[in-house]
Amino acid sequence: MKVWSIVERGPAGQRRVSLEIAAKAQELGESKAIEVTGLERYSPLPVVAAIAAKAKAESPDLILVAATPIGRDLGARLAARLRWAYASEASGIVAEGGAVTITRTMYAGKVRATVRASLPAVVSVRPGAFTLPSGTAEPAVETVAAEAGAEKLAFQRFEPTAAASGRIPLAEARVVVSGGRGLRGPENWKMVEELAGLLGAALGASRAVTDAGWRPNEEQVGQTGRTVTPDLYIALGISGAIQHLAGMTSSKVIVAVNKDPEADIFKVADYGVVGDVFEFLPAFTAEVKKAKERA
Questions:
Q1: Residues 6+ apart with CB under 8 A from 131
Q2: Minimal CA–CA distance to 77: which of 115, 42, 41, 40?
Q3: Containing domain of residue 203, as a range?
Q4: What confidence tens digit (pLDDT) does each residue in 265-288 have?
């Protein structure tokens, strides 16, 4: 079976999720990593046209894309262009008997669905769904050139803003430090930022925090925000509403700090601290500083 994975790049090279789906493609069959070149930034029509033309010429059985904003757009458009089956947000993939079976979570993680689609198919894969062995190298990439003028799309240019802080994007982070309403206001976020900086972590927030305007929307973790799967997730002053849990329960280790011993966040936490976040956070940050100085 011929399986393609579509490459996305960030400032540091291939995104982690691209490495994950490339590894999964190798596991499933005869694999090839494909990257579209020739454009300053992602533009849906020329990118879809370039991949679709190559797919029609070479007839892969399965194309994997990342379930990122770009990948979701690309995957659905590509499947429609090729008139192939499309399955989204996969956290598990099995291919056999001319079909692909995926597992995916639904309804804020309350339901695990199994979806079967005939091949050929396009499947989007959730970041962090597949374990990436330590030290995995970037796969060899086959490039396909897009013709920027082949299909024109009218658009207004917006400059990117997320990279201004220099922080690791949530989807790429192996450590995430998130804050909730327990932090009482935006003026207290400097404590969260200090800890995140020491840990090399991305910043996250609950929906209540972003709705209140304390933090930007791109930091929201949850069903209506970002889904994260880091090695370590630290939840500070977050009660654990179901929509928030849907976005972070796949984290490998969860540490929760909340003064309410009955908070729902403790139901999913590996380590819990019942206490005032304003007492815990400065003390914990000081210990992290000491540990880094000793290292």
A1: none
A2: 42
A3: 162-294
A4: 999 999 999 999 999 999 999 999
